Amino acid sequence: MPDHRSGTAQQSARIGQAGAAPPVMLPGMLDAIRTLSYRLCAIGLEPALARFHSEIETFASPFVMQNVEVNAYLDGYARLLDGGADDIDDARHLLVMLDQCDAVVCKIRRKALTQGTSIALTYLLVALTQSADRLRKLLFLVDTTGELPSAPTLDLAALACEAAPNEAEAVSPRRAAALALALELIAAHGERYKVRELFADNIDLLARNVTENASRTGEHYIAESRPEMKAMLRSSAGAGLVIGFMALFKLLLSHLRAAPLVEAFLFSVNYSLGFMFIHVLHFTVATKQPAMTAARIASGLHSPDGRNIDLDSMAELINKVLRTQITAVLGNLATALPTAWLIALAWRAATGHHLVTPEKALHLLHDIDPFGSLALFYAVIAGACLFVSGLISGYYDNAALYTRWAQRIAQLRGLGRLLGQARLKRLGLYMEDNLGGLMGNFYFGILLGTLGTLGYLLGLPLDIRHVTFSAANFATAAVGLDHQISWQLAARSLGGVLAIGSVNLLVSFGLALWVALRARQVRFKHGTVLLKTLGRRFLQAPLTFFIGPPAQPAEAATQRGSE
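User: That's the sequence. What structure does it adopt?
Assistant: Structure tokens below.
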């Protein structure tokens, strides 16, 4: 409801300062409490939940016990209304049962991080959380003692200030909670049949499903300290070495002058096999943003009380991701550029002619010109491809865990006779741990290899520019022109490489952050405060902002001992 209309709601949603809800509203609220309790009980006994928390079937389920407590509470409330009792017990014990329900939900979420999840399970957990929260709000409104705490998601002091801007008009916590619930119900009713809201809710559910699983493939994309930054630099340097050869193979494949679809297939094979090889060697490609990054960001969005967003923790995590990705870019460039340069020199020494003609070399330089070409727009497309590959990686990681690939592969008798049971078991564990990374890199290669051909066939400006391949192409072009290029052209080309890397990083990271925000339904108003928090961290410690904090004493001692 718009703010300028909230005054009418404030006047219409009048609830007593000390007593419970007025009689005209009380029966409906009590029926809603009973319905929500039954819903909690039914959802809590779903087999999908029992799979992650088998104690539900062994011991007394808190979802069932809360229904028993609700029925007892409502029976006592009915006797109070009929005059058969002077007072009823408060609902504190019922709130304890709801807290136990929340604890079970938290346990299932933690297990889902390592065992995978599904959209159905994600929906059930969201429904449980929302139902328990609504039940707490209603219990607070019908309470007769005035001592029952409110729902953790309600900040009654802030609601009271919003309901009564003038200090002369004091608003009780119960009235503020009633107004908040009324506005929530009115907004939900108004958006009930909107197609846009339906799509938004489903996108939020899918986003939560993607970020629910902590993809182990992406663990090494976030460096916590300077020693880890050095490890990231070494890992990305290895990837740059491989990418230098991938750029060579792409140039050789382009010399075949194959049909467009055949060329797209060959380019895709080159990219996919190269990126998968990088993953097998445990190297790192710059600007990769797997689902783990979004999950880590999403996990830091809320403060412990569940009411406010922990912007400081989120800013710290975003800072870690940014500086880790910058380190990965520098590591890739530090080896990709000299590798491509040495390959071009070796090719001329071995064959007597350049790897690329002067015309092709000028074309390669034009492709990375940030002002004279669509290089930055193509870098945006490459960043989107990096983000999509991260989602694919998270999806397959989650699928491998949820469907228990290691156990399934171990049951393949034919493959067991061929490899032996011990090797088959190791293969199953490896595939379960690395399926997401392999499939994400495979599809990333397909995206990079086919988009240019798709744009050519459709007559649309579709292509990709990745920072590492752009650097390799610059080195190859410099050798192809016998290093006879002006300093202005060299500066513009190198500036284009850095600009392409920045766009790759910002787009892929921004989209991953968008998924995390959609997963927790955090809107842009928090993003403005978040940017201010990041800026404050940069001004306080610029060096630490980019290279990370030094190793802790215990960590440094451990490293010296290992050396």
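The radius of gyration is 29 Å.
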